Amino acid sequence: MLFGIMSFVANAQVNGFEEAYKAFRQQAIQDYENFRDKVNKEYADFMRQAWERYQALPEIPKPKDEPPVPPTPYPKDDKEEPIKDTPQPYEEIIPVVEPEPQPKPVAPIREQPQPEETYFNFSFFQTSCKVRLDESHRFVLKDCQMNTLADAWERLAGSEYNNVIRDCLELRIRHRLCDWAYLLMLQELSDAYFGQNTNESTLLCAYLYCQSGYQMRLGLGNNRLYLLVASKHQIYESGYWEIDGMYYYPFNCQEQSLDICGASFPNEQPLSLLVNESPLFTERLADSRTLQSERYPNVKAKISSDENLVSFFATYPTSMLDDNFCTRWSFYANTPMSERMKNQLYPSLQNAVKGRSQHEAVNILLNFVQTAFVYEYDDKVWGGDRAFFAEESIYYPYCDCEDRSILFSRLVRDLLGLKVLLVYYPGHLATAVHFTESVSGDYISLDNQKYVVCDPTYIGAPVGATMPDMDNGSAKVILLE
């Protein structure tokens, strides 16, 4: 009898807890929705007020480097000479650029049940995508008056667009889109739905971007609406607006003067240009090419690159952080290669270094990068400086010193698990590797650790050899992940 009463009381307590939890959860959901509604209502109200006139600041030109140092063959007479331990001075250390978590919506966005779901299909780098968007979501901006824009924003902020935002965020996860790729995807979706370069497309893109947690501002000029994207990165060759100490960069805007809405959202986060994962697009394979080391002919791989991924990399805007142009190379060097490329390239390299000492293994990888690729100056190929992601060096027929160093740093970290630095000399980029075994050569000392110079453009040079005439006193050490 006592056991039955206790069970009854326990069940009543459990049921009470469950009901209390359900009520708490429903209240939390309602509080989130109320907060998000309040924030969007305040934003729309701010849009109805006077926008402030701002003048564009001149674009930041790409830094003019010293004349590039041409590739240099390692002297044959030096090949038999032992390499001595020689410390190398340097001028500056560029710290690791730490990635941050991607932005989140200001409040969780609740799924909106619909009796029948209709999808809008669009293509992004030839990858099929779809979101829950139909004809009922269309709107027309009769003009660019503030009240017109505010009314449209209030409509967008209604629950009927919730599923669109959720679908976009789900695409960001599924396709491993970095901030830059996500912004391009939202633009592609909006242009496909409303038409390219329309005010309606710009407003939809801005809304989806903003509701995803990103920092942006809206600008008006000559009856056109523009999306201005906040970023801590200083993007080269693009005019920009500075508002409250933050740089805002426009999409497809040549205006020098804009009326800008200064309204902000809680916890809005600027765009990052770091690429922490290789995006997943539908594969479009290029013609294959064979890469082979001269000194180690068995180090050979037949490669077919994904042209959709390469096309995405071609859109990447060159930038720097903290007014230091050396930071740009770490963005490229810290970007991982795709699994597909690793599966093609790495088996041959892994077989070549298997069972070797670290010194031997790095020499094998170094000679591969020195001799399997054709050197050419960026000015001749591209008309100006253009750094490559590791995957691009494998795709394009030519690469230069910075591209080789970026690729080599990726191979050593992935295949051998060793730490690597980039070393910038005026007009040249090389690398240095931290060995956990004893290795002699020119080296950089950092935090009581020895990083031995490895130069992928000093053709045929072994580990520890610095290219002649490098100004070590002006060298800058760039830390990598």
What does this structure look like?
The model has no long low-confidence stretch (mean pLDDT 92). 39% of the residues are buried. Strands 3-20-21-19-18-23-4 form a seven-stranded mixed β-sheet, covered by helices on one side. Strands 1-12-7-8-11-10 form a six-stranded antiparallel β-sheet. A two-stranded parallel ribbon has the order 2-22. The protein has helices at 2-47, 146-156, 162-174, 179-194, 199-211, 307-314, 327-333, 339-353, 358-371, 378-382, 390-395, 401-416; strands at residues 52-55, 72-73, 86-87, 92-94, 120-124, 127-131, 216-221, 224-231, 234-235, 241-243, 246-250, 257-261, 289-292, 300-303, 319-320, 374-375, 398-399, 419-425, 428-434, 442-446, 449-454, 458-459, 476-479. The chain contains twelve helices and 23 strands. Strand 5 (120-124) and strand 6 (127-131) form a beta hairpin.
The end-to-end span amounts to: 66 Å
Tell me the β content: 15-25%
- Outline the biggest β-sheet: 7 strands, mixed
Low-confidence stretches: none
Q: Rough shape?
A: elongated
Number of E-state strands: 23
Helical residues, percent: 25-40%
Q: Please, how many helices?
A: 12
Mean pLDDT rating: 92
Radius of gyration: 27 Å
The main sheet orders its strands as 3-20-21-19-18-23-4
Decide which structural class fits the backbone. alpha+beta
